[in-house]
Amino acid sequence: MAAVLALMAPVAAQAQADGQRPEVAAAAQAVGDKVVAWRRDIHANPELGNRETRTAALVAEHLRALGLDPKTGIATTGVTAVLKGGRPGPRIALRADMDALPVTERAEVPFASKVTTTFRGQQTGVMHACGHDAHTSVLMGVVEALVAMKEELPGEVMFIFQPAEEGPPDGEEGGAEEMLAQGIFKDFKPEAVFGLHVFSTLNAGQIGVHAGPTMAASDRFNIVVKGRQTHGSRPWGGIDPIVAAADVIGTAQTVVSRRQDISKQPVVLSFGAIEGGIRYNIIPDQVEMVGTIRTFDEGMRQQVFADLINVAEKVAQAHGATAVAQVPDTKGNPVTVNDAALTERMLPSLRKVVGADNVVDPGLTMGAEDFSFYAREVPGLFFFVGSTPQGQDPKTAPSNHSPEFFLDESALDIGVRALLQVSLDYLNDPPRG
After folding, report:
1. pLDDT tens-digit profile of 143-154?
2. How many other C-beta atoms lie within 10 A of the C-beta of residue 244?
3. Tell me: the pLDDT tens digits for 158-208?
4. Are 233 and 418 in contact (CB under 8 A)?
5. Left (φ > 0), alpha (ψ -120 to 50) or beta: where does 205 sit?
6. Protein fold of 217-333
7. Long-range CB pairs of 316-321, under 8 A, 24+ apart, other chains included
8. What does the alpha-carbon distance between residue 163 and residue 136 come to, in Å, rounded to a whole number?
9. Cofactors per UniProt (predicted)?
10. pLDDT tens, 22-67?
11. For residue 26, which of 421, 423, 358 has the smallest C-alpha distance?
């Protein structure tokens, strides 16, 4: 209840740090209430990847009302628009993602999601458990602020509202890779691209940024262990895929712990879902398992693929079963790399927003982001905005993707200020050479 009361209170304006542009503070204050309202509306009406029709319509309507000419339907539901400033200058792109997750919300907020859907054959809730509602609303606020400065603005800015960052539905294309495949950087090639992510591992008031490789490459796998169905009272009458699958899961842990040099780079292999059987006294024909692999090194990535396939097939065989291992089973995300020179250049901008002591280096993050595709095309900077309320330990706070994920809405104000400060500093004083 305390969290709810805190949410309902007005969002406190952030103290202006030394060097923050006065127009940033004024703009953030002007759009602040709108950003909160957009965020709460989007949060209460979440949509899964490639299904963000309502969210995309809200974004496009806002852009049109500001006098922009948005392009819609990109990569299914994506929206872009370009703002041309009144003065010559560089080109940059700002990106936000719009999709939610198949998670049933348990956070105590008055605008909690009640949306449900069927995902992988199961009924589930839909929730902005990763904070993409915040990203979308922050960028909507930044668009409005930059449009208001249009006459004095140097250069051009592309706004990217992207679907399916969490991945498109099976059998569909989507996300950043598809946005690029459909040509958003063909006629407008920015010199730099910027993005942010609200993050539970930091307190509100903090910004996290790491130069170089920042977020891991992510790959999904699917393993089907096939046995032979029999009555639960006569296991010898069939081949038990459940026991074989359990052995595969246990042995797969050695792929990282015994076969990878994790003193070189971290590696994660996690199983996320297991499905097999329908009745207590029937040993089923098969068990399906899906999971994720996270790496920072391409050689290590390929070795994990090979080792996991080997474990699945050989362990299943030892039980008299067979395994069909698709590793990976879809195209994954590459490592998200923050351009070192761009990061160094923009660090002072972030410090101007929250103060030098509140800009921290979170190190390598095993989470993944398809912002990585944009950052492979042009220099990119992706930073984290703390979302856990001050006074709460972020180490124990519900994490992104948790049904109890909670956003301190002061993070919205910081997000607007940070993205504006970075944009204006770059546009007014681009790199030389």
Report:
1. 999 999 999 999
2. 25
3. 999 999 999 999 899 999 999 999 999 999 999 999 999 999 999 999 999
4. no
5. left
6. Alpha-Beta Plaits (3.30.70)
7. 316/225, 316/226, 316/241, 316/244, 316/248, 318/247, 319/227, 319/239, 319/240, 319/243, 319/244, 319/247, 320/227, 320/239, 320/244, 321/225, 321/226, 321/227, 321/239, 321/240, 321/241, 321/244
8. 11
9. Mn(2+)
10. 999 999 999 999 999 999 999 999 999 999 999 999 999 999 999 9
11. 421
pLDDT of 362 above 50: yes
- Backbone φ and ψ of 212, nearest 5°: 80, -155
How far is 331 from 220, CA to CA, in rounded Å?
Answer: 8
Q: What angle do CA 145, 146, 152 make, to 5 degrees?
A: 125
Taking phi first (over 0 means left), then psi (-120 to 50 degrees means alpha), and beta for anything else, what does residue 363 get?
A: left
Q: Residue 143 has which token pair?
A: 């668009």
Give mean pLDDT, residues 217-239.
98
Dihedrals φ, ψ of 133, to 5°?
-60, -35
Whose CA is closest to 293, among 398, 216, 228? 216
CATH number of 22-214+335-428: 3.40.630.10
The Cβ of residue 141 has, within 10 Å, a number of other Cβ atoms equal to 29
DSSP code for 409: T
Q: Give the H/E segment covering residue 283.
A: strand 282-283
User: CA 153 to CA 83: how far, in whole Å?
Assistant: 9
Residue carrying the six token digits 């809405």: 409
Task: Quote the CA–CA distance of 366 and 18 in Å, as a whole number.
Answer: 33
Closest Cα partner for 182 from 39, 76, 321, 62?
76
SS3 helix, strand, coil % of the chain, rounded to 5?
A: 35, 25, 40
Enumerate the domain spans of the chain. Answer: 22-214+335-428, 217-333
Q: Is 320 helix (H, G, I), strand (E, B) or coil?
A: coil
SS (H, E, C) 19-53: CCCHHHHHHHHHHHHHHHHHHHHHHHCCCCCCCCH
Going by the annotation, the residues of the binding site for Mn(2+) are 130, 132, 166, 197, 401
Residues 6+ apart with CB under 8 A from 166: 48, 49, 99, 101, 130
Beta strands, E only, 133-206: 154-162, 192-203
Burial class (CB in 10 A: 0-12, 13-18, 19+), 283: buried
The confidence score (pLDDT) of residue 430 equals 81
Residues 282 and 151: their CA atoms lie apart, in Å, by 71
Average pLDDT, the chain: 95
Q: Which residues are catalytic?
A: 99, 165
